[in-house]
Amino acid sequence: MISQNWIGLTGPQRSVTIFGIRLIGFNAKSAYKLLITVGYIAVVLTINWVVQGLTRLATQREKTKLWAFWLRQAVRIIAAILIIVGVVSVWANNASGLGTFLGLFSAGLAFALQRVVTALAGYIVILRANTFRIGDRITMGGVRGDVIKLGFIQTTIMEMGQPPGEQEDDPSMWVRARQYTGRVVMVTNDKVFDTPIYNYTREFPYIWEEIQLPISYNDDVRAAEQIILKAAQDHTVKISEMSEQSLREMERRYVMKRSDMQPRVYFRLTDNWIELSVRFISFDYDVRALKDRMSRQILAELGRAKIGIASSTYDVVGMPPLKVTIAGGEGRHDEGKQPKSAV
Q1: Do 189 and 232 belong together in one domain?
Q2: Are residues 169 and 260 in the same domain?
């Protein structure tokens, strides 16, 4: 029969015993500290949750979203610091106790939480180096899309598709353009140490794009060039719309030339056609809609100019000799009837 006193305190250290078995290192004092620790962490997390909620309510407008993001990050960091300082203060009564605690804590982290610590370090690097922020379009860990959340351990990305030329990339996409796929992907922050981080929007809100068009050698290639170039000039970002100060700043910071920002058509000779590639600059968003408008205009203008788009063709330059045998006799057939032949 089990005794009713299945749990109790024994010895001068008042160690906890269960069914007569003493738990090493766990006494009334440590139990009290554990209770204080749990209560303290619960209070800090509750305050953090309340402040986060008030922040969301006070920053619902579009203009305050960036400010709200940094405020929430600051609140989370403060809460984490308070928890760490409070736990250390409760459990470390003196310098030797603090050293023992830190030693055990470091050993546990090194063994069990390697990736977590690395991801946390990646979070600090992202904030300190301003690698990206909420709303930036990036490629991180093989995932391309817009950043919708940045946490201590993970970055949340709204995934987008890939243009046709990149469909073989891993992972492959069913959306054949830089538009949302509908999938939300979580990428650990430690990827900043392992893979390059491509940022499409940081400080420079433009990207260069191209449209390739095959034109037959028999068509008016110069006229086709003017049609394609005019479409690019009509629909893409114009240099004249940028302020002189912005242009000078771009030239200084990115070592760019203004001539590189003007639309230009390049020729490439192939076995079947002349490939015309128009290179132009555009905003980092809505590229698919821009190329759609350009393509419609180019098709209409090429139709008016009676210029076709080339495709792969084959010319037959020779045939082997054919032998024809007339059925029903040696070269004879009935009058009024067509002879039957077989090849």
Answers
A1: no
A2: no
Question: Residues 186, 259: one domain?
Answer: no
Cα distances (angstroms) measured from residue 114 to each of 76, 149, 185, 188: 21, 23, 22, 13
Contact 264, 189 (CB under 8 A): no
According to DSSP, the residues that pair with 229 across neighbouring strands are none
Q: Parallel, antiparallel, or unpaired for β 264-269 and 274-283?
A: antiparallel
The neighbour count for residue 231, using CB atoms within 10 Å, is 23
In the block, residue with structure tokens 């269960």: 18
Q: What is the pLDDT of residues 8-29, one digit of tens each?
A: 556 555 566 665 555 555 556 6
Global pTM value:
0.56
Q: Is the dihedral of CA 179, 181, 183, 189 positive or negative?
A: negative
Say how many C-beta atoms besides its own lie within 10 A of residue 332's C-beta. Answer: 8
CB 185 within 8 A of CB 145: yes
Q: Which phi and psi (to 5°) does residue 99 adopt?
A: -65, -40
Confidence band of 5 (pLDDT split at 50, 70, 90): low
Query: DSSP readout, 229-279?
Result: HHHHHHHS--GGGS-HHHHHHHHHHH---GGGGS-EEEEEE-SS-EEEEEE
Residue 92: CB partners within 8 Å, gap ≥ 6? 98, 100, 101
Q: In the chain, how many domains are there?
A: 3
Token pair 């400010």: residue: 67
- Give the range of the structural domain holding residue 141, as residue numbers without chain letter: 137-199
Contact in structure between 252 and 244 (CB atoms under 8 Å)? no
| Residue 212: alpha-carbon gap to chain centroid | 25
Do the domain assignments include residue 330?
Answer: no
Whole-angstrom distance, CA of residue 220 vs CA of residue 305: 9
